[in-house]
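Handoff note, outgoing to incoming analyst
You'll be picking up this chain. Sequence as last confirmed:
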Amino acid sequence: MARFRTWTGIALAGALSLSLVGCSSTGGKRAEDARKAAAAQGRAAVDTPRWTVAMITHSGDGDTFWDIVQSGAEQAAVKDNINFLYSHDDEAQQQAQLVDAAVDKKVDGIIVTLAKPDAMKAAVARAVKAGIPVVTVNSGSAESKEFGALTHIGQDETIAGEAVGEELNERGRKSAVCVLHEQGNVGHEQRCDGLEKTFDGKLQRLYVTGTSMPDVQSALEAKLQTDKSVDTVVTLGAPYADTAVKAKEGANSKAEIDTFDLNAKVAAGLKNGTLGFAVDQQPYLQGYEAVDLLWLYRYNADVLGGGQPVLTGPQIITEDDADALADYTERGTR
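Most recent structure output, in case you need it:
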């Protein structure tokens, strides 16, 4: 497999995923078949009690990134004999209500995202007060410890943005647009902040309505038509990369399209050259480790991270890496 460039010095979580990323295409298929068989039979690798873990995210409907997170969590749940419950809402108040509902059910552990931390603080505090261990995932690394969570699993969004800025400098880019598709998401702002910190060129922010791809496309197309100096577009989620490519074509722009996050379409875009690079934060690993760490805590009072986030990224993925990742993106685990 190609050696991906990484900006994180914490490889703790990666060691637990060697069986996933180190297999051949044949071995990967066998492992996936075995996973499906185990899931179908409800087979676990442990004999601990069947604890219940709830994951509540800020995902909207149809977001492929969160499908990957959920898949990783479900795989760990099979192994750990966990009854896994998943729910989501992209409205912060509704997400907080889902956390409250999980507390009322007296689940044995909660995994939650903190894309809009202020709205989630009271709900997380209620869970902690009830004695339910909480792990935050993906977003909210800065607030996780303050809110009483055991640990946070994900990438540092500012560091990820800084990595993108450095990559753009290496590519000789001079004028970039950072496309924010979810206003109020602190992680998205941090990505653009980090990019701006290290990028030697000009950075502009474009706020779009991420729930409507036609609106995203038209807003970006208009930007590229009116500002011909833009030579780079950075989207903050894999589903928006393809839309950015369409906007580029509509505007007859020569801008390079780069993106945060990875999926099968992004991998194909890297391979055929319609995308420059992607920033992978390994969502499968985020879901898997969140469930696994709650099991470890319930079983043995283990906590990873030493008070710091357990980082799963960022990794810069380019055309050179696309073939090596094809098996994993096609099966929906990268």
